[in-house]
Specification:
This protein has 299 residues and is an alpha/beta fold. It has 15 helices and 8 strands. 46% of the residues lie in helices and 11% in strands. It is globular.
Amino acid sequence: MVLAKGSPEVLGIGPAMIIDCHTHIFPDEVRRDRDHFCQKESVFSSVYQNPKAKMIGAEELIASMDETGIDQSVICGFPWSETELCALHNQYLINSALRYPNRLVPFLLLHFSDPEWSAKELKEGIENGAKGVGEIALYDREMTLQDIETMKPIFREMEQRKIPLLLHTNEHLGHSYPGKGTTPLEIFYQVALTFPSLPILLAHWGGGLPFYELMPEVAEAMKNVYYDTAASPFLYSKKIYRIAKEIVGIERILFGSDFPLVSPKRYFQELEESELSLEDRQKILGLNFLEILQSAKYF
């Protein structure tokens, strides 16, 4: 067998399980008629009106996983402003996981403006195989303390059962790009304070929040918060891995590619050059996230 350049085996990562905790797939109808959904949803249009913004289905994700040696991927949708579209996307995620058992791990879309619908969607989704919630993102406005209060009963239930919550975060400095939100980092800190036992996954290195964990009171509040690496090659130097390990500990760093935005091979190469040990790389690439899933108590 000839191993592809950039594969886990070539880079000395295998044979430990590799789990990508952050990918996105879209229903067939959305991919077929992008323009229709851009006209229907301004938030969707702000991210996907450019035809170069990639959208893929389950089959393309599985093909990439096979090529790059990824065992499992968390599949996320898009944070639509209408619950009907969230439900459509959730159903596609559930159906995709049923078609590819043991490969795809569905996370559900919930809606801050409709907690009653969200509670029902969570219960039904978990009963049908969903393993978490997210990626929750607010691209057109800031997340507020009122949003946290509205979702408190749902997040309390998730906290009791240790069902993971994936939140979109981003840095507030640097270059602009589609989907760069404006929610202050203090809000995500408040989520961690309000739900101290909830496994919270902050995408994109938490928008820089790991650096605040040099403050002891912040580190204490964030002890059940994890940081994924999604889009890291576009945002940070590869030194981020070593620095984040020193600040928050290797156990709270999760490999997420944001595929199809970035190929997993980019992360494998950066990890190889990061000066982390093989054991540390294996934890980031799957073992840490596996522990989160194994700790959850589903309905």
